[in-house]
Design brief:
By secondary structure, the chain is an all-beta fold. The protein has a single domain, classed as OB fold (Dihydrolipoamide Acetyltransferase, E2P). It is 0% helix and 42% strand. It has no helices and eight strands. It has a five-stranded mixed beta barrel with strand order 1-3-4-6-5. It is globular. The protein starts with 21 loop residues before the first strand and ends with a strand.
Length: 138
C-alpha cells in the first residue's frame, strides 16, 4: 500500500498534503509523549489513539476500527497550531482529522518506531483538526 489515495481529493491541493486519504476518526488516547519532537522544521505534539469510530475516510478502503494510530500535531508556527493541546491524557476520548499514512508508508521517528504505526498527518488547518474536551484545535 502507498500513501496515495486512489483519486485526487480536494485537500491534495495544499502544499503539506502527501496525497493520502483523508480520515476523520474518534478514539481513545492510549499513549501521550510528553516532549514534542522537532522535525520538518517544526515542533510536533505526539500521541497514540485507538480508533473506535470512523466518521469519514475519503480515498481509503480499509477498516480502521481498532487500529492504533500515531498522531503528530504541528504547533508553534504559522502552519500548525499556535501552541500544544493542553491536558492530553491516556484514556480520554478524542476526534482527529488528517491524512492517513499506512504503516507500510510511514517513516519511523524517535517516538513512532518498533513497530512503526500508521500516522495521522496534516492534523491542523486547512485540512485537519483535533477535538478534545469540548475544544476544537485547528
Amino acid at each position: 500500500m502507498t500513501n496515495s489515495a486512489p483519486q485526487t481529493l480536494p485537500h491534495h491541493s495544499y502544499a503539506n498534503s502527501l496525497g493520502a486519504p483523508l480520515a476523520c476518526v474518534q478514539g481513545t488516547i492510549s499513549k501521550v509523549f510528553l516532549a514534542p519532537e522537532f522535525h520538518h522544521a517544526a515542533n510536533h505534539q505526539q500521541f497514540v489513539i485507538t480508533i473506535d469510530t470512523v466518521v469519514k475516510f475519503d480515498g481509503g478502503t480499509q477498516n480502521l476500527v481498532g487500529t492504533e494510530v500515531f498522531v503528530a500535531v504541528r504547533f508553534g508556527d504559522s502552519e500548525g497550531l499556535a501552541q500544544e493541546i493542553p491536558g492530553l491524557q491516556v484514556g480520554q476520548p478524542i476526534e482527529v482529522q488528517g491524512e492517513y499514512i499506512a504503516e507500510a508508508s510511514a517513516y519511523p521517528t524517535a517516538d513512532n518506531n518498533n513497530p512503526v504505526l500508521p500516522v495521522l498527518h496534516f492534523t491542523h488547518h486547512p485540512v485537519g483538526y483535533v477535538k478534545y474536551q469540548g475544544q476544537t484545535y485547528s
